[in-house]
């Protein structure tokens, strides 16, 4: 099974847009088409961003729904604890995704962040856009 890390910007955009793309990703996750991988730092950032008033307004998620999402992620995602500190990205807040990728030996890191995408891959993990990930899911 593919091990996938979703950047915070991807998770948030899936909840904001609620598009066919979002439905495809959530259905694939529910059907175990891939294993979502998270670290404590990624989970913390994701929940913090989703809790921002402006983002909550866009997602139409209540505080309770955000807490439930956190629990759902904890129960269903593969949780890893990175053992090495990586300082690779211009924006040091992005390093947590690379650390998680290395710890999990992830297949893909799905991101919309140019600082990550420019790397193309990192220690065996391909760094791809959401559209590429949707194509991979379609090929399975």
Automatic annotation (TrEMBL):
SMART domains, A to Z: PINc
Protein name: Putative toxin-antitoxin system toxin component, PIN family
Pfam family, one: PIN_3
Gene3D superfamilies: 5'-nuclease
InterPro entries membership: PIN-like_dom_sf, PIN_dom, PIN_toxin-like
Residue ranges constituting the PIN domain according to the UniProt record: 2-118
SUPFAM superfamilies per record: PIN domain-like
Recorded superkingdom: Bacteria
Organism: candidate division WOR-1 bacterium RIFOXYC2_FULL_41_25
């Amino acid at each position: 099974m593919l091990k996938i890390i979703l950047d915070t910007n991807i998770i948030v955009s899936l909840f904001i847009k609620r598009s066919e793309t979002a439905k495809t990703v959530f259905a694939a996750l529910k059907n175990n088409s891939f294993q979502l991988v998270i670290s404590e730092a990624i989970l913390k950032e994701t929940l913090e961003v989703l809790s921002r008033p402006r983002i909550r307004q866009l997602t139409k998620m209540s505080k309770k729904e955000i807490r439930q999402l956190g629990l759902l992620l904890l129960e269903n995602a593969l949780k890893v604890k990175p053992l090495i500190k990586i300082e690779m990205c211009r924006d040091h807040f992005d390093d947590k995704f690379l650390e998680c990728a290395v710890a999990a030996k992830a297949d893909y890191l799905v991101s919309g962040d140019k600082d990550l995408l420019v790397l193309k891959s990192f220690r065996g993990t391909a760094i791809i856009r959401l559209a590429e990930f949707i194509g991979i899911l379609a090929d399975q």
